[in-house]
Amino acid sequence: MKISAVKFYTFFFAIVIFLQLYIYSFRFNIFFQLFVLTGFFALEKVKISTSFFKTSLPLVIIFTLGFIGMAFERYHLYNIIKDIFHFIKPVLAICIGYCFYKKINNFKLFVKTIIITGFISAILHYIIIIFFIKNIETVSNIREHGTDNFMELIAIFFLAYYKKFQNDQLFQSKIIHKTIFGVLLTSSVLYFSRTMIVMAILTLLTIYGYTIINRKGLRIAALLLIFTLGFYAFLFSINIQRNKKGIDSFLYKVKNAPAEVFKTRINRENHADLWDHWRGYEANRALTLLNDKPIRYFFGCGYGSLVNLKFYAPLSGEPKGMKYICELHNGYVYILYKIGIVGLLLYLLFLFNMYLKIYFNKDFITIFISAIGLSFIFTTLVTVGINNSNESLMFILGALLFFKERQKVNS
Description:
This protein has helices spanning 5-22, 26-43, 50-71, 77-104, 107-132, 139-142, 150-166, 174-189, 194-207, 215-237, 247-262, 271-276, 278-292, 296-299, 331-338, 341-355, 364-383, 393-410; strands at residues 307-313, 322-325. The protein is mainly α.
């Protein structure tokens, strides 16, 4: 039986995303993605358009700049290779999404693939919670095998708004539609992810046009700011204990979120203080090392550079722990440390270019390109952004960029 190219590449696209989400070996995923993209170019004659090349060029330049900072230092080869793969990953992901769907060329199938992949991922999430988590009384235990899943979140919005914008039905049966939506929504809630909540809000605001800077957008932004300040005033007015079970532990994390990122004056001897503000601590250590040699601000410390924590942190399976780390939670500081201010500006240029597309045309494709760009602007602050080891949205973004390109050609 002959398998069509459409089915073949759709299957492989879904597999790439699944492995990205559920195989925690970064090394395995990066080599598999290299294999997939190399195999694709060996089998197919798909040309990269000028439009896509210009869009993804900042990512390519960022990747190239990492070699400049490296040239002035002497680093361990293993750490150099690891960093190279971390910075080539978003380029691979966006190219796989673009190239595969340039070959498949079916937008409805793309949306269905994301939704079905998200649905299967949600089922796996339920299985993990039911069979692999012994104690579900605490949020931290539930999150042990899954801290977030942005692909499932995008699948919810694809399912909910496809008909509104495309005037077409994805699934003929309303029961199937509601079942998939319910499964995806419940699974997303069970991640208890602060980042997913913010991303969901940003996506909703983008869908209804409130992320455009105009009178209406500024009014909504002001209302959200007032609500957020009020909510945090409430959180700080009640006693939420750090090690409580259930929803209290999640509320404590929400309450602690701003300080976790921005507080830098931390007592390392106080473990509670250190772990509650870990993101701020590691970012501060990176900036301190940059200050030691201000010239590093221009092109960074390069591939292979490590951040000295000044103590052995229990971040790995080693009994002694880790004193030097290669990756930070704060993606802005991470890029600044590795690539420098030029790389950071290019990174912001890429993300703002995605976000600004909503200003020129408001349709299903443009809305989600803009929403993903806006979400990355936020997630870069807390989960490294596009350089995250388990990041899956760049594959979806690559496909959306192709369909946007096709839309322009057709019009």
